Please model this.
Amino acid sequence: MRRLVIATRHLVIATRQSSLALWQAEHVKQRLEKAHPGMAVELLPMTTRGDQLLDQRLDTVGGKGLFIKELENALLDGRAELAVHSMKDVPAGMPEGFEIAAILDREDPRDAFLSNQYASLAELKPGAVLGTSSLRRAAQIRQRHPGIEIKLLRGNVETRVAKLDRGEYDAIVLAVAGLVRLGLAARIRERLAPDASLPAPGQGAIGIECLSKRADVRSLIAPLAHPATAACVRAERAVSLGLGGSCSLPLGAYAESAGGKIRLRALVAAEDGSRVVHAEATGDDPETLGAIVVAQLRAAGAAQILAAIEG
Model:
């Protein structure tokens, strides 16, 4: 059998400089070099606007796009051919000329409860301080545990864990996937079931972005794609896009693939947790399934919640 001749023998991956982002980019680098022997892949670490604004909520300063704009500029000006992202950080609508060319197999998508005092979220006493930067997590926790004080928690994974250890918080909630990838799984006291804390769209999945016109780059990335994960993430992102794609909306969406079908669950919440609406559907096509769930959410009151948030 003739070996495929690869014209592109060198690739540059644009990535954020956090430990987790570098782990993900290095993971993609290793898989690309294994898939294409003889290819050289290097990393271009970058600091993004989202990494700099550590004392403010993302929804008030520009949203998830703050984490990827500089990386996309590197693709545009030719400094890099690829950008590697956590899919939960990628805005629902991609800018023209860019695409997510591959989504890798997913790590555990659940939320993780960490504490040096409590073994589970249910054990937190009224007045306990819990740290999170996620409106989605905060709203779900406020609904079930109204006595808990929610406090903003920004920074990379290690910074957030360090703040917990310094006693600034009684507990924090992070993504399981990031902790596992950084070798910090032992810090997890409880992996929160989706029914207790529905994950964010794309949580636990790594995506590879490139310019839409780069068919050569897409062909190199193709062996890394995981179709089942991609279908689930597409369904989740369809919910976010169908509701306007705003990171100011506490939104959870989680899809699972089983028996050739996709089960999609989603919720929209008021920021204070006073109202949470749920929807669920099963189907074949991710985008169609997302549209069905969006219609259910709107019928259940999501439009009113969104209108109240937007003022």
